[in-house]
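Q: Sequence in, structure out?
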Amino acid sequence: MRPQDVVTTPAPPAPAPAPGPVSVEQAEAALVEHYTRLVRIAYLVLPPSLGRNRRVLTAHALVQRSLPRGRTTPTGATDAAIPPSRRALGDADPGYAYVRGRVLRQALDAGLPLKRAAWPKRAQLPPLLPHVWGLRVFPRSGGADELALDQRLSALSGPARAAYVLRGLEELPDADVRHALTSAGVTDPHAALAEADGMDTAGDAALLDSPEFDPCSLQARPTDLMRRRQHVKAALVAAAALAVCGALLGLPGDGWGPDGAAAPPYARNPAAESALDPDRLTRVSPTAWQHSSRTDFSVWPARGSLTDDNALLRRALAVWARPGSTVQVSATPGTPPGPPMGPPQLLYAGEVDQAHVVLLHDGLRVVRYAEPKDGTGGVALDFARTDGADAASAGALVAGRTDGNVRYLTAPWVRKTSVLDLLDPASEPQPLSRGEDGLTDPLASPAQARDCKAWDVLELRDETADRLLTDLGELTPARLTSGPPSAPRDVTGKAERAFWARTACLLPGVRTHGVRSVNSWQYAKQPLPDSNGTANWLCTRAETWRGTGSRVMAQFQAPGTQAGAPAAIAARAEDSSACGVRDPKVLAGVLWKSRAGRWYVLAAGSGQFTSLATSGGVDGSAQGTLLAVPARAGARAELNGRLADGSRVGALH
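A: Exactly. Output:
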């Protein structure tokens, strides 16, 4: 034995008053004061076959469960726990003796074998509390003497270990040990003492106070990490299988359920329920747009062959309110995808190719619900912001896309629909048929094309103008215009179509960005050096429905290139006010090589500029809105211009 490893345990309790019923407060006070000693007794009496980790946790659990259940213990129970000889001397605390007796009884019960015909006692089961996840805890290791003592204790029966501990650790005489064992339920305490007599060796009793048997001073080590990882994987697989089985049980048998692919309802209130009621959908008169002060989506009538299919409409409303995990949801930037505030307006319900499609409008957004004609998979829900729409921007909606084609639902005021290839400025519009419900025949969608060999746009004719709309991969097509920001106009003339022929292939840069309209404005024409003809400078601005996130491109269109070839992008900016109504000025430059092989820095500004200048790698200046300065290949220059008020403005970037 190593003297430095011996930990002094508190001496047996101090004298106490005369015996009587033990109150809960008295037992709790004894348990708290002598907790470490009681846990050590339980640890020593518990069978070593439990293992050190479980013995530690079980010892703590037994002591913590040793308080009396009522307010006081029966007098007889207290007297039985305290040997008469020690009560007579007055040197035992009744509370401590009672708790110690409860600990001994439970520790002895834990060592009993399980029987099939009887319910197991609580002490025979692993403790629920305390519990340590991911760690194994055990007392500090002692020396060879402590190990030998532990092995000898493991060879004893439970009552003999209890007798040895009471005799050696508690220093009780044999008579008191017999009384304590009897009160703990031992049927033959004399045999237990006789078996314990064989353990008496010099110094063994002192070893019971060593750290080897102290379950309150612990070391921690991880559990079997590989086995734990396998158990975690198995638990995850089981949970996933349970979730899949639950989902399969909830699927409809032969078709759609009442709510289709919607998630389970999460709230019940009158406002939410009214928004899900197909009978409360707003249905506008077919002639409302003719006398309304507004000409936008709010005056579109309800059209389509399925406007009376309440089951379809209810599924669409339910999925909008709470889309399930299998629903493919998309929303243009800045569009909230939440449920409607009240009953929305029905725009369309009908068959589009191989799908049932419902188009709804709530004043802020247009929502497209699509489900397959056959089966219950592949449901889609698309949101697009449409607040502030007018007759020009509310001319059509995308009803469906299939096999690289797109079909539009046109406004009730549209008189004629045509298809126009934007890359061929000399081509004539081709008629596009549409049904009585306003649904057009399919046309090639440039938003789904892999190359830019053609760019088919939709031409709408109404009472006032012919308008061009293009599909940019969203629910609302973008309107194409030309002219200065203060007065954009629809693309009709040959010159404007020629500019757009070289701009169209740049439109993928603003695809799926929530674009409402794209305006391309020729802000300057520049004679090129070395008699290379005249170049056009254009500023193309894509405005969004949300107002922010606009994209601006300054184009340099040199002469002599093939019709429809994309122009060179001189500069670009995002979320900029340049080239717009609030800030119509624009300045951009390029490094250009003439047919003679000479390099120049070319720049052009809008009419607000009075002079231009370059510095850095190339120095030069010019009065007016145009600049051409000789340069070297790869030269870099900083461009700026001066306005009429004398302020200096940098180039678009």
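Residues 1-19, 74-91 have pLDDT under 50 and may be disordered.
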